[in-house]
């Protein structure tokens, strides 16, 4: 997060409601994005994240709420104000890239500058500058109809930043690339965004991408915001069953709170007669019937006494390369445990499961 | 929409104008069909159902129509099915080429087909009948001026339509459905009977009903081949009753509307079958089923496939060519007298040269003015979210459901009774052509509009372009291939238009197709053949340009 909290937000959305006929795609969403920040809207398909983005771009007409960009109200249901897309001064990278096949790479990138009637020389220098940034200079005069997916992606980004907008919207820009290229482009996009200090709103359904790229993440479900916070907070302190389940891999342990424990923590009586030491979550909750436990936060073998330690048996081992996923039988059922590939255990081997109270998040 | 924008103005104007063009003639037609007083006065002085009841008094027209349409449908579906099966399921040499040639009969038009078969199989003088009689037999091989003749000509034309529909359903069948039957132990025969046929049956059935419906409303073949023998079907009967003295517009209108109703019902039925009967095989995905190896049979199948092209295109065109260059058409070599006189007459005759010029002018003007308008309409209907776009689509598609001849009748009656003096001028023909070709143009352009990814346009807006700037720099350039195709299709359709023109043509606004028919009915077949060929050449040139444009566009995409 940026330190200059006092700065006015570049994007401010308040109580946004978007309806398609009878269905409400977005039901009362509010958030603000500070200058230079990259915020991600993360959620499953149909959760309203793309609709929110398109409403900010002016491509969908909301039915309620307010949208402010650069301290100017661009949509307000109360004031009956709806500024058309082209006058909002935002820029956007589309999921399909939307590269115009009838223009060269240069003409695609120059479009926004030409619309703004800039002098020829300035257009050329701007286009060359951004093409250089995305390493596409040698393709400038190519017809854009025969570019590869990755190249189209770069052109789309260059076009979106060419006219120096102060807000850029990204609609699942990497979802059409193969896994390897996607990981590379993720790094490049983040570099570019930090270098140019572009305020960005980024939509994705890929939780890994959202965590890796963002300053803050907004997790959405069924048209509402589930949780809003920095990636670490989303991962470590999910506030709901949905967030714990959708972001990362988590075990859901059923049971109920059975009293207070040491250091101001709580005791949680899980099914199967196991009592776990858990910390009071950031939400301040002291009652609940589920505890979420990340599968990467479970260790094998004894550790410090403050940790929980439970005996179990390896039921199944699946080798994934970057990690090994174990299914472990324990008194409360089965747990998924992810360990580095160096920690190799055989199926049927007895193990001691050990995990910290603060990693047991009461939902 | 918070304010009334430029888009909304354009939308409103288009909706009002097109609505008037389409609905005005139909309203007149409906009112006139209930006129049982003096058929010449409007508005009618007396209303009643008399015109409709009269239809059943003389049931000959109805039975004639059903007979011809049934024979022609059976033949057309048979042709279409055989061609579709050979070209999609068997491994015969030159399949791709044949498949492309299958479009040609469609561009031949029933009018040209009827003239050519009249030349080939007319009683006594028909070229094939001459050949038959030269062997010493003193009766005709076949008289084309008969219900069978009319059905034969129509079937050759509609066979292409049936082919397209049936082969589409054969192609959309996942080959693994048949393969799994074979793997489970069923033989070729059992697989065909138990799997293949049931799966293509809905496609064949809906093609049958569709073709039958088209047959009910077809005019040209029955006109050329039925009138000389006084064999009337419903379309020619409509035309006839407007010519009787005094013209019985009320009866014509009632017949026209009944025909319209019958066609609507059958077309609705055909749609219902497509929707209900399509199993999950129809995924919209085109498969290329592995063609069956048919061994030595492939030469026979190839001969059958080529045979259809020969009979539907080459033989008729050959006959017309041979006839047009002779003084008296004959196939007996010793009696042939070749001459260019027919072409000289066609181009010199007082009213004929203007007919060619008029048709060219109409084709160019209607296409040139129509395409931009239809382009905007297609964009509004299939892209925008403006209220009223659904209504616009319905209104614009109405002319496709009304038989051309019936629409022509409505236009005639509507424009006679309007105080704007354009009846009998090219203006009226132009307006009428635009109205009836609206669905054709819209469908062609819509195909391209729907292919353009919406985000290409949205991106322009986000980049700061206004609606008009976006249309100019992104939408229209991307639509270009569709617009060019629509231009050529409208041009082709205008040049060969018959059903509307027969009613609206005046002495000073002659156009080609009705002039050819008139010449056929009143003067020599040699002259008519020359005119028909000239029209066909015009159409084929436009078709050739269209294919070239289509190829260069698809070439650029790769």
Question: Tags for this entry?
Answer:
heterodimer, A: 363 residues, alpha+beta, six-stranded mixed beta sheet, five-stranded antiparallel beta sheet, 36% strand, disordered N terminus, B: mainly alpha, MetI-like fold, 23 helices, 0% strand
Furnish the topology, listing elements before pairings:
The complex is a heterodimer of chains A (363) and B (558).
Chain A: E1 11-20, E2 23-33, E3 38-42, H1 49-57, E4 64-69, E5 72-76, E6 81-82, E7 90-93, H2 105-115, H3 120-133, H4 149-162, E8 167-171, H5 179-196, E9 199-204, H6 207-213, E10 216-221, E11 224-229, H7 231-236, H8 241-246, E12 250-260, E13 266-270, E14 274-278, E15 290-294, E16 299-300, E17 308-319, E18 324-330, E19 333-339, E20 350-355, E21 360-362
Parallel strand pairs in A: 3-9, 3-10, 7-8, 8-9
Antiparallel strand pairs in A: 1-2, 1-4, 4-5, 5-6, 10-11, 12-13, 12-15, 13-14, 15-21, 16-20, 17-18, 17-20, 18-19
Helix pairs in contact in A: 2-3, 2-4, 3-4
Chain B: H1 6-33, H2 50-57, H3 60-89, H4 95-101, H5 104-121, H6 127-133, H7 147-171, H8 175-183, H9 188-216, H10 220-226, H11 234-243, H12 249-277, H13 297-324, H14 341-348, H15 352-382, H16 389-401, H17 404-416, H18 426-451, H19 454-462, H20 467-495, H21 501-504, H22 512-522, H23 525-557
Helix pairs in contact in B: 1-12, 1-16, 1-17, 2-12, 3-7, 3-9, 3-13, 5-7, 5-10, 5-13, 5-23, 7-9, 7-10, 8-9, 9-12, 11-12, 12-17, 13-23, 14-23, 15-16, 15-18, 15-20, 16-18, 18-20, 19-20, 20-23, 22-23
